């Protein structure tokens, strides 16, 4: 039974899926869900190629690379134990991803079947993506690595001990040099939703692949996506049975204080006070801090946490009528709002809604960095970090060029997307990277729900609060590939 990648919404028990689930790495079709991660970017020791190959093979054979099937079995057991009131068994999630250089280091020189951006690596796209110069990336990322080992666990000390043990093992065996280690740590609000460092609920809108994960309401936005959004045949696995996915990793530092001060300046410029002030940031992100889409909110008021159960709504689009008004003119969510730039939900310019959807990705990032006062505790400006914290952005896709790069370059960084008139839209105020010397400008509605040009106020401060510190393009190979090494 072969797997049809064009199929949307498959069952976990679909025979075609079950036939590949043991060979596919986990975390691609559903998130591993752990709150703590450790990832090591390494360069293999060229003098030990045979040993490295043997080691990777052993990892796959001994199930120390988590397959999609294993991930689901672990999650089912965890949920069952939790439901029964028992302390759930915490198990490691492990993923192994290779760069094109990594394949070469393992002895594979003919990589023509892989995505061209993957073959070239992230550094080759630096100018195209308006990324900082490679010399300004963090040291470990300036020299391209061969592989990324991802560990995830629910208990932080256990995770950290494992990462330390693994790094020591690589060093002792002289298998690889560790170029960079990143620890991810999930923050949550009072009701357990994950927050990013600017204080907004993250991870709400994701493509969904399994019927079991399908939300009940999907009239206005159906997140169910075909498997081909993220899966491609593994060129070095068993034809028809082995699949993999491209993995983009970017370390994105967040200047929290700078961003929150700018939100306040915007609120002042728009005359928003007290409870209304939160709308300034909500228009920048596209959702209120509790996850409520600005477009869906029938009121200009801050949506309080007691409404949080409805905060994470994702069944919406910008043409939908709320209280008799659509949001096609950006009177509630301006066109530059981060979630509108990165998913226009059928209101982008020039592409059919079906084509537009194919630029989305399965986002698997996690926040990093320690802070004394967490976002949920509403720190004062001088208690907010300006560096050392951020997002370990990660995404799975079937084409780096058509998904991650398209989103960053053609949507987030492009001032004229989706519109250049009557006002230019401006870059994405969260992740947009202007061209060198390009001025940044945005327009925000001064009166709620009124997107007419006369109601728009120019405000120029939103850029540069997220800084790319390094990253690379990887492939998550099938387990068969590792077993055949
Ligand atoms: C530090 C950097 C970033 C921050 C703080 C951030 C924050 C957020 C937040 C708060 C949301 C709303 C929650 C949700 O809908 O899941 C969101 C959604 C999203 N972000 Fe980001 N993000 C960052 C980087 C990126 C990058 C680099 C990309 C892609 C190039 C991206 C693409 C998206 C997409 C596609 C959505 C979902 C939009 C939708 O479907 O409505 N984000 N982000």
TrEMBL record:
Which cofactors go with this protein? heme b
Which GO molecular function, any one, fits this protein according to its record?
metal ion binding
Q: Which InterPro entries match?
A: Dimeric_a/b-barrel, DyP_N, Dyp_peroxidase
Keywords, alphabetical: Heme, Iron, Metal-binding, Oxidoreductase, Peroxidase
Under the heading Pfam families, the entry gives: DyP_N
**Family classification:** Belongs to the DyP-type peroxidase family.
Q: What is this protein called?
A: Peroxidase
